[in-house]
Design goal:
The structure is a homodimer of 750-residue chains. The first copy, chain A, has 18 helices and 27 strands. Chain A has 750 residues and is of the alpha+beta class.
Chain lengths: 750, 750
């Protein structure tokens, strides 16, 4: 039956195009059977049809400009860069359109443009811009050349059979083979890495190899270069080591072994995971089509599917990725890379109906078999909600290098979400943010992670590249909602040291009644300093919204200054402590990001708790924190020493303990009330928690209690040294006995 | 036929309630016929039904708490204030629900609560909070007591016939009559004004008069107190004069004569127009129902209808009011006041189908005849789009006190809108912002008007009242996008002087091909200084989006410092001039709002134009401005001397001409390009206008030209002294002759 269909498809192709190609191409992302299926289902699949129409509109618009293949010259954002980028995007689509519609003008356009590249490429020196550790030829870095090859190999595949043999000879001899060689043997420091850059190189080389049936290139992509002579200390432009310490081997399988943790977490964070997923998924699809014997989607216990589910869980309620590490805010699962990943995983990995609900929001599909599957699923109404639950994603190839904890409560449209980071460094794009967190409410940031200091592809801003302030501010510890010791950053801001270290998960429990809680420790960030942070989300009908509890303890043998910033979003409403604002603003410090913070206010209090109440997004928030009279309560604003206005001038609140050995920060963050600007009615605008107490804090135990206006009282007990579920704990305090089993217990009015 | 219906209605009422009331009440907002119509149409009118169900849910929830009539004590935001406010809102709705459903529990609830008020009121002293110029008894100011009466008179009307005569006697004798007296004869400085406060007083007194058929109260409301003995210099809390200079008479008709201009513009601006419209419209509806002989909706050439259309035109593309004068951002035509006004004007003033499209967005209707009309119209699909066009709204009772000019282009979802203010002062809530402007694009602020420094009804912020920074910052000239002379404000910040003055419209022309333009002058704000500002929106297929032109000239006999700030929203991308940022931030000045501005950067240029390019809301913007090397180009940030974080810390750009007699500012503001954070593609991120020239500027003429990258060139010629449409102008410059007819001409490539 399948054979009959293939026969029919081929027959139809012949009718459509009138050309004499065989069934051997396309074979990469499209297949001859896939094209036939798409053609016969086009009318029945509105989303597929719409995606095709959008592609045709895009390509026709670009084709109307004629072919431009300029001599490479510019950086990202500049003319030649953007033109070559547009060229590969257009040709990839044109190839698909040719296959589906049979309209030869698209094939001819691809051929003619590729011929111009073939004419230019052999004499092309490396790109004149020299700042990359691996200069490309078409673009300033091999990475972008590899992007080109991933897309162009698809375009070439689509017209392969349509071309005359001597045309293919020219393209392969003058363009594709030397192009693939330049990216691999010509730049081993680019190709033989375990890194998002090399996923592109590997996919490009492998995909063109599959199109040309060039076994040498295919093997190079799957297994890496046998020799690379890369110095073990060599670094890339971001300061990351080229070779991962202990790296043995390279190529696609090694990437899949090392890039993702067993939970599918990618160590650079979601933003780069998205970027790496596109070539990984496309190459996997190509392999599944050309080399089904490899069973690539089964590899490493379905790691490809896991990596997609991991990244989908690292999104806020609007689908935007948590901006961990170098990540530009706004990027989401609506991106093209995620469209590919969702469609490919849906099609090849069991047709999970929850993925259809993501595809529905994406509102476009790949123009291939996988997109057809998704479009069919949607047109049949098979989708089910993608429920994002609280989840811990472990980091590291073996899952033993820390992780990310995500706690969620409430319905998606009114979700409160807490993200805590206790991963490894995350390579060159990692931030020095051990035990940091961020908090979301109703899909908006309440306590923000700054993200990257970069405007990707906006030429005015340093060619769209990383801004200097990314190193001096965004990566630094003080730019995050976590502890800073003595105004320095974790590992003194040294990535190389950081890359050898990771925090340790202590416990993660989201099954308790009314409480979800996560806890992690770090002993690596500051020599001689141990940090332990526990964060919980507590739901109780006594509170309007869930409460966030933050317990951050630090131990050291010598006295230090401890700073804990909270980058809250919104307008300060009031505080329960007095503060003064300076007549002139000065930077809070002179290094490790402190030079970028204006000190905008300063206070302290003799009360045992300080409260900061603010307003954002029609809701009120209150941070209630335990303080001593010596603690400094600082208001800050980002933007000092910002000579080109590269930073967002957002504010922060910082609790400073000037001289302590062991210290404890305990805070409750409440989301409460509502303000309606149309009816001008404020409800529940003051905090519900009126009282916060530390019962005990020692090496073994931390017990806190808090109470509300109505006289309710809660006690949270934590075991600091034993996270085993079955251990019994007993402690007597002021004549009262507290007993519990496992690492924590929440009690109410006991 | 009508009589038959009324008979039936009464008959039905009798059946429904089993009570013996006559047809004389309700008569105010509801009528017996109206109730009958609503009942019979409820099932056919989904929106009416929904509004009723929402009202029932609200009232039931509040009734479940029982009746609370606490002794008055608190300010706005505090318990007793919010409780009494909630009481009148609930009773008004309960009255309507009783009438429509006939469920007597609502009537009983109203009676019982009113009885508690009747018990408390006679012995009640003025409210303990003494800060108002007209203290209330239930609330801290008469204004809120008047709100109470407007709502409660409706509730009383609904149960009037249901009550026993002796119950009515108690309520009228102990509560309503003394309440109305206290607001009128008891507080003439509140009642006999021409002001939004007194519209509430008048409506409350008039409406309860109509319910009780008390001719004395009705006459008082319509014609004011005959004697008030108010000192002509007496002021209210906002610094506004109690009596308008030259005011003769008071009461409702005088309000309608003086509050609105012939175009329907209310001198305090849209935010307060909304506030005043509710009592005005409700009282008008009540009069139309009880005293149709007055033909109130025909009064002053349909001024009530005009005032609604004026305010609807003073909204951005999301329906939010332009925040002119003291106005909290976020208030929109979705507010309850506008629901009333739209429904009432629709019903009584010709059933304009464009109003239905506003009502559709409001998604609720009044539960009376007017709401029924709207609901019927909507269920029949009669709505037509409400097209907001460019419009000039003149200010002043006679329309001769300046005005507001609004220029719009494009479809609502992608509209560019320019608002220029050349009104009179706008009484106590007026800002010192002569010839200021604001600019919107895609429904978002691009160049913002700060609005008010206040968080209305948010208790933490100064009891929800005006913040001190409203006077020291928000009202000051430098807080606006207009010229500041010698670091002082218009009229040296004196409202009383300001209230005697206004700017002058020069011309407003929105019928030209490719150009809409407005021009106004002011000679009052600074003694000895004449200002003339012309703003245009130019559309040409050579630009991606419309251009904004801003020509601001100033003439003086002595040297002054001239500052022109632009409060642009978004992130600075780049400039074509060099600037430095200070190591420490100091305030830009020490008075008139300058004390609240940090100076965050400073530059200048030897080029004849300075360009500032910024990014906001996925779009790029560029301000290109003519400068001389002596001009200082300043970056500022709001927030200095902000000891309670009461201000938004937004940024500005300021062009300073340190010492000039006559000076000219010429700028082009472009909206261009797009940035898509999901695809990370920036298009057209640089300005299109590369060249800006002044050809001549003298008393008679100003001619500028500007050109784009493609070599196109435009010339804009303006006659500065003769705005007549028919005058011919000729001027020779550098051997070229420019001729045109009327006050302006735009030419392209001539």
């Amino acid at each position: 039956m399948i054979r009959v269909k293939i026969f029919l498809a081929v027959f139809l192709c012949l009718i459509f195009t009138g050309s004499g190609y065989s069934q051997s191409h396309p074979r990469l992302v499209l297949t001859t059977k896939g094209v036939s299926d798409i053609r016969s289902n086009l009318k029945k699949s509105p989303l597929l049809n719409q995606s095709l129409r959008e592609a045709i509109a895009d390509v026709d618009k670009d084709m109307a400009n004629g072919i431009e293949v300029p001599i490479p010259k510019d950086m990202a954002g500049g003319y030649t860069h953007e033109r070559h980028k547009k060229n590969y995007l257009t040709l990839q689509k044109a190839g698909v359109i040719f296959q589906i519609t049979g309209d030869q003008k698209y094939a001819a356009f691809i051929r003619d443009m590729l011929m111009q590249y073939a004419k230019m490429y052999p004499a092309l020196p490396p790109h004149p811009e020299t700042r990359s550790y691996a200069r490309g030829k078409i673009f300033w870095q091999c990475l972008n050349d590899a992007n080109w090859l991933v897309y162009m190999s698809q375009a070439y595949d689509c017209i392969y059979d349509w071309l005359k043999p001597d045309e293919r000879n020219v393209l392969e001899h003058d363009l594709f083979k030397p192009f693939a060689d330049y990216l691999s043997v010509g730049n081993p420091q680019f190709f033989n890495r375990i890194h998002n850059h090399s996923t592109w190189g590997i996919a490009g080389v492998g995909m063109i190899g599959l199109v040309m049936n060039d076994q040498e290139l295919i093997d190079r992509a799957l297994y890496g270069l046998k020799e690379d002579n890369i110095d073990k200390d060599k670094k890339d432009n971001d300061g990351g080591l080229i070779k991962m310490p202990g790296q043995t081997g390279a190529g696609f399988f090694i990437q899949l072994d090392y890039l993702f943790s067993p939970d599918g977490y990618y160590t650079e964070g979601a933003y780069y995971q998205r970027y790496a997923l596109y070539p990984v998924m496309l190459f996997a699809e190509s392999l599944e089509n050309c080399r089904p014997d490899l069973k690539i989607f089964d590899y490493r216990n379905h790691i490809l599917s896991k990596s997609l589910f991991a990244i989908l869980n690292m999104t806020d309620s609007e689908g935007q990725f948590f901006p961990i590490n170098d990540a530009q805010k706004g990027m989401s699962y609506l991106s093209g890379e995620l469209v590919s990943a969702v469609d490919i995983v849906y099609h090849f990995c069991g047709k999970d109906p929850a993925l259809l609900s993501i595809a529905k929001k994406q509102n476009r599909v790949l123009l291939d078999n996988t997109g057809l599957s998704v479009a069919k699923g949607l047109s049949r109404g098979l989708e089910k909600p993608f429920i994002k639950k609280s989840i811990e994603l472990k980091d590291g190839p073996k899952g033993d290098q820390g992780g990310v904890g995500i706690i969620r409560t409430g319905m998606p449209e009114d979700e409160l979400c807490l993200v805590m980071k206790y991963t490894s460094q995350g390579m060159g794009h990692g931030h020095f943010d051990k035990l940091s967190f961020s908090m979301y409410d109703k899909g908006k940031e309440v306590i923000q992670d700054y993200g990257v200091a970069r405007y990707v592809n906006i030429n005015q801003k340093y060619g769209g590249g990383y801004l200097p302030e990314n190193n001096t501010w965004a990566k630094q510890t003080v730019a995050h909602n976590t502890l800073v010791v003595n105004e320095t950053s974790d590992y003194k801001g040294d990535s190389e040291t950081g890359n050898k270290c990771h925090s340790d998960p202590y416990f993660f429990n989201v099954t308790g009644k009314g409480i979800q809680i996560m806890s992690a420790k770090d002993t690596t960030a500051y020599p001689g300093v141990s940090m332990h942070r526990t964060m919980a989300v507590i739901e109780d009908k006594a509170f309007e919204k869930p409460l966030v509890i933050d317990i951050c303890s630090v131990q050291s043998e010598k006295e230090n200054q401890y700073d804990l910033p909270y980058y809250f979003m919104g307008q300060v409403m009031n505080t329960n402590f007095k503060y003064t604002v300076p007549d002139m603003l000065s930077p809070l410090g002179n290094a490790y990001g402190y030079q970028h913070l204006w000190k905008t206010g300063e206070g302290n209090t003799a009360d045992k708790t300080a409260q900061l109440n603010w307003f954002s997004n029609e809701r009120f928030y209150t941070l209630t924190t335990l303080v001593s009279p010596d603690d400094q309560l600082l208001f800050t604003q980002i933007g000092a020493e910002d000579s080109a206005f590269n930073l967002r001038h957002d504010q922060g609140f910082m609790i400073r303990k000037p001289r302590e050995k062991d210290a404890l920060f305990v805070s409750v963050i409440e989301s409460h009330g509502h303000y309606d600007p149309v009816n001008e009615i404020a409800t529940n605008s003051y905090a519900g928690i009126t009282d916060l107490n530390l019962l005990i804090n020692n090496k073994k135990y931390t017990l806190i209690s808090f109470g509300d206006k109505a006289g309710n009282r809660w006690t949270l007990s934590i075991s600091n040294e034993d996270a085993l579920a079955g251990t019994n704990h007993t402690i007597e305090l002021n004549g009262k006995t507290y007993t519990w089993t496992g690492p924590f217990k929440l009690t109410n009015n006991e």
